[in-house]
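Progress note, sequence design subtask.
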C-alpha cells in the first residue's frame, strides 16, 4: 500500500495554488479562492470558477481568499480548499494517504507552521514536510545550491517577497517581506482612486498590472490602458486612460521596500559569497519577476546582474517536486518532517 502512496508537492500561494505529483509533474494550477454561501455555510466553487465570482456575487455569497501574505488567514476555508484540490489529484482514493511537501515563507512563525501542518493532517496526509520557498525556488531554477558557493534568489509571489542567499544546501542570509503582487494591486486601486477619483476592483487592478504594469520606464515603453470603474463623485460608470508611467509611480513604495530588503541581505552576506553573487548574478522567480523593468531597476540599484528564471511562475512548485524526488538527501534542509 505504501508503494501506491502519492507524493504531492504544493506551492500554497496567496494568489495561486500549484500542485506537483511525483511522476507526473504539475497536475493542477488554480487561484487560491473559494466561493461560499454564507447562509448555508456551503462551498459553491473553488479555484478559477470562484475567482470569476469576485466582485460579482449577491450578498449571501462571498469569494474568500483564505491565504494572506503567504500564510493561512482562514484555517477552515484553507482546509476545505486543500481537501478539494488534493481529492481531485488522488481521485478520492482516500485509502492511499498522500505524502505532502508544502512551501512556506522564510521566517514562518511556529503558530503559522503548525497551522499548515494541521491543515495537511486534516486533509489526510500520511506525512507532511515543509520547505522554505526560496530554497524550493532555487532548486526549481536549477541553481547549484549544494555547492560551497553563493547563489541569490528572490521569489516574489502574490503575498510575499522571499530573498535568500544559499550555499551548501542551506539558507545563509534571508529576509521575507509580507509584500507581493497583491500589494501592487492594492496600490493600483489606491492610486486611481486618489488621482482619478475612480473606484476599481481587484480584478481590474490585476489586469492593469498585466497589461501596463512597470517598475521603471524602459525605452520606447510608454503604454496606455483604458480603465473602467465608478466615479466617486457621481457614482456612475466612467472610464479614464492611464499610462505605464503612472503605474511606476503607483508601485514606487512597494518596489523600493523590496529593493531595500535585497540591499539589506547583501550587506549581511559573507564577502566570499558576495563575490560569487557578483559573478553569477541574482535570479528572480515568481509572478513579480515578470513586472516590466523590475530586473533592470534592481540591477541598477545593486550593481549586480539580475536574471529572470526560465518559467518563473512555476519555479517554486517545480523545486518542490524535485525535492520530493530527493527527499532522503534533502532532509536536513526541511523545516519539518
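Output:
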Amino acid at each position: 500500500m505504501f508503494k501506491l502512496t502519492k507524493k504531492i508537492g504544493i506551492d500554497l500561494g496567496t494568489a495561486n495554488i500549484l500542485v506537483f505529483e511525483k511522476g507526473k509533474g504539475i497536475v493542477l494550477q488554480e487561484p487560491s479562492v473559494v466561493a461560499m454561501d454564507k447562509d448555508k455555510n456551503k462551498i459553491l466553487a473553488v479555484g478559477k470558477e470562484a475567482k470569476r465570482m469576485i466582485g460579482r456575487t449577491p450578498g449571501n455569497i462571498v469569494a474568500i481568499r483564505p491565504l494572506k501574505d503567504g500564510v493561512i488567514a482562514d484555517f477552515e476555508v484553507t482546509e476545505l480548499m486543500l481537501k478539494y484540490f488534493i481529492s481531485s489529484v488522488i481521485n478520492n482514493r482516500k485509502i492511499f494517504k498522500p505524502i505532502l511537501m508544502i512551501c512556506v515563507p522564510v521566517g514562518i512563525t511556529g503558530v503559522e507552521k503548525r497551522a499548515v501542518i494541521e491543515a495537511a493532517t486534516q486533509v489526510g496526509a500520511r506525512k507532511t514536510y515543509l520547505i522554505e520557498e526560496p530554497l524550493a525556488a532555487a532548486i526549481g531554477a536549477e541553481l547549484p545550491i549544494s555547492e560551497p558557493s553563493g547563489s541569490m534568489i528572490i521569489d516574489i509571489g502574490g503575498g510575499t517577497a522571499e530573498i535568500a542567499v544559499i550555499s551548501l544546501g542551506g539558507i545563509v542570509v534571508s529576509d521575507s517581506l509580507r509584500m507581493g503582487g497583491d500589494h501592487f494591486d492594492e496600490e493600483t486601486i489606491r492610486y486611481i482612486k486618489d488621482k482619478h477619483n475612480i473606484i476599481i476592483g481587484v480584478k481590474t487592478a490585476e489586469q492593469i498590472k498585466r497589461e501596463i504594469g512597470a517598475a521603471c520606464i524602459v525605452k520606447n515603453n510608454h503604454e496606455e490602458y483604458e480603465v473602467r470603474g465608478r466615479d466617486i463623485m457621481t457614482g456612475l460608470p466612467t472610464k479614464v486612460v492611464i499610462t505605464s508611467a503612472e503605474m511606476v509611480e503607483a508601485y514606487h513604495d512597494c518596489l523600493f521596500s523590496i529593493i531595500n530588503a535585497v540591499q539589506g541581505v547583501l550587506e549581511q552576506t559573507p564577502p566570499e559569497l558576495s563575490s560569487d553573487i557578483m559573478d553569477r548574478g541574482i535570479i528572480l522567480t515568481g509572478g513579480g519577476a515578470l513586472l516590466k523593468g523590475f530586473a533592470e531597476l534592481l540591477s541598477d540599484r545593486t550593481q549586480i546582474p539580475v536574471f529572470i528564471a526560465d518559467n518563473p511562475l512555476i519555479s517554486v512548485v517545480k523545486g518542490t517536486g524535485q525535492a520530493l524526488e530527493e527527499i532522503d538527501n534533502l532532509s536536513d534542509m526541511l523545516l519539518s518532517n
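The mean pLDDT is 88. Work on this subtask will continue into the next period as scheduled.
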